[in-house]
Amino acid sequence: MAYSGKVIDHYENPRNVGTLDKDATTVGTGVVGAPECGDVMRLQIQVNPDTGVIEDAKFKTFGCGSAIASSSLATEWLKGKTIHEAEDIKNTQIVEELSLPPVKIHCSVLAEDAIKAAIHDYEHKNGLEHDD
Ligand code: FES
Ligand code: FES
């Protein structure tokens, strides 16, 4: 299967690979797995508690090139957004940006799920839960 140039670029030069302190109250961690293939993605955000702005984002993905590219792109998009803006990131935006083919759509779903899980973790740690 042919990967798009953007997927290859993110795969070869992944942005923001790394780890934030998962015990910090300002850090939210999301770990999700894809039942389709067994790939696993960990995505973390560091939030300014006064503004709700995501100041840093890191990921580690044990998975296919599209999953790595989706999470790399997600960390780029997350930085500078508020957690509420970040909740609106959709896997379809990732599919479009990376030109993912149908068999790779679940890789972008993994990234959306990881973003949501990281936000939830941050919210739960800080007593900010809301229901959706
Ligand atoms: Fe499963 Fe990409 S093939 S995450
Ligand atoms: Fe915030 Fe669901 S994304 S509670």
UniProtKB/TrEMBL annotation:
The keyword Iron applies. Belongs to the NifU family. GO terms for biological process: iron-sulfur cluster assembly. The keyword Glycoprotein does not apply. NCBIfam families: iscU. It comes from the Bacteria. Residues 2-126 form the NIF system FeS cluster assembly NifU N-terminal domain. This is Iron-sulfur cluster assembly scaffold protein IscU. Gene3D superfamilies: 3.90.1010.10. A scaffold on which IscS assembles Fe-S clusters. It is likely that Fe-S cluster coordination is flexible as the role of this complex is to build and then hand off Fe-S clusters. GO terms for molecular function: iron ion binding; iron-sulfur cluster binding. Keywords: Iron, Iron-sulfur, Metal-binding. It comes from Mucisphaera calidilacus.
